[in-house]
Design a protein that fits this description.
This protein is an alpha/beta fold. It folds into 2 domains: about 90 residues, Leucine Dehydrogenase, chain A, domain 1 (Rossmann fold, 3-Layer(aba) Sandwich); about 120 residues, Rossmann fold (3-Layer(aba) Sandwich), CATH 3.40.50.720. The chain is built from 10 helices and 11 strands. A 6-stranded parallel sheet has the order 1-11-8-7-5-6. Bound molecules: NADPH dihydro-nicotinamide-adenine-dinucleotide phosphate. The site of NADPH dihydro-nicotinamide-adenine-dinucleotide phosphate has 26 residues, from helix 10.
Length: about 280
């Protein structure tokens, strides 16, 4: 029977540790403030933003909310981000993605000061990660590393295969696994013989964006499987990119959906907020 990696429990542990750090901060007269910017009222984005604000409240981080109408222009958003960059009372800036189509996300991300880039999406943050310098790291992949470490799963020397090469998950995931001395392979939609490559994995990280795509035919017996995907299945139940029921008796450890990687993303965002104030 597979070991079920409990992301909810681990994320709660991290949030409790952060809460202690914030208490110590406050005892020294310091505050931590995250500015959360949302443009438009996409329901999924509103849920994510709400969860982030709730986590801030739990940990003791102030959240400053900027809810802008969907007609907001790119220039107006740039001006707001620049103003937040200048404010000494704001430590971190989060612009919830996706943005309305008339706003160029890359330009907005590049406007955020790298010192306040708690999402870790700025090219300076990504570049720092790629050359092993300090900087903010994208929250989902850093959450995966925490899940592995806190589950006592060794990365060093392991064959690590990532399915997906997005800028926010696949690529930073590769750099982080490399930093932990894994042997890393990245697969994508043009990979030939995907099954042959994924079957080499001791640790398989799946961030493909296709519900229940990965079945046991893709996985070596006893491998560790991290499922980053989030979807609703045909019964409107949450599921991942991995067909959990098909693979669970075939693997040695697996993250469930929900309750695996998802809660870790917010915990690592909170960690980045605490780091932004130090
Ligand atoms: P993207 O759509 O940006 O990237 C998907 C990647 O999968 C691409 O690199 C694509 O390849 C690759 N891919 C698509 N089809 C195939 C295929 N048939 N074979 C091999 N590779 C393929 O997705 P994200 O990285 O943003 O997200 C991935 C999943 O993770 C989604 O389900 C998303 O909802 C979820 N997610 C969850 C988070 C959490 O907090 N738990 C946070 C972020 C994302 P190519 O580059 O060639 O197109």
């Amino acid at each position: 029977m597979a070991y079920i990696i409990d992301g909810k429990k681990i994320s709660n542990e991290i949030k409790d540790e952060l809460k202690e750090k914030v208490i110590a901060f406050k005892e020294n007269g310091k505050e931590i403030t995250l500015a959360v910017v949302q443009v438009g009222n996409d329901p999924a984005s509103s849920v994510y933003v709400g969860n982030k604000k709730k986590a801030c409240e739990y940990i003791g981080i102030n959240s400053l909310s900027f809810e802008l109408p969907k007609e907001t222009t790119e220039v107006e958003l740039i001006n707001l981000v620049k103003e937040l960059n200048q404010r000494n009372d704001v430590n971190g800036i989060l612009v919830q993605l996706p943005l309305p189509k008339h706003i160029n996300e890359d330009i907005i991300i590049q406007t955020i000061s790298p010192e306040k880039d708690v999402d870790g999406f700025h090219p300076m943050s990504v570049g720092a990660l790629s050359i092993g310098h300090k900087g903010f790291v994208s929250c989902t992949p850093s959450g995966v590393i925490e899940l592995l470490k806190r589950s006592n799963i060794q990365i060093e020397g392991k064959e690590c295969v990532i399915v997906g090469r997005s800028n926010i998950v696949g690529k930073p995931m590769a750099f982080l696994l490399l930093r932990e001395n894994g042997t890393v392979t990245i697969c994508h939609s043009k990979t030939t013989n995907l099954k042959e490559v994924t079957k080499r994995a001791d640790i398989l990280v799946v961030a493909i964006g296709k519900p229940k795509f990965i079945t046991k035919e893709y996985i070596k017996e006893g491998a560790i499987v991290i499922d980053v995907g989030i979807h609703r299945d045909e019964n409107n139940k949450l599921c991942g990119d991995v067909d959990y029921n098909d693979v669970v008796d075939h693997v040695s450890a697996i993250t469930p959906v929900p309750g695996g990687v998802g809660p870790m993303t917010i915990a690592m965002l909170m960690n980045n907020c605490v780091v932004s104030a130090t």
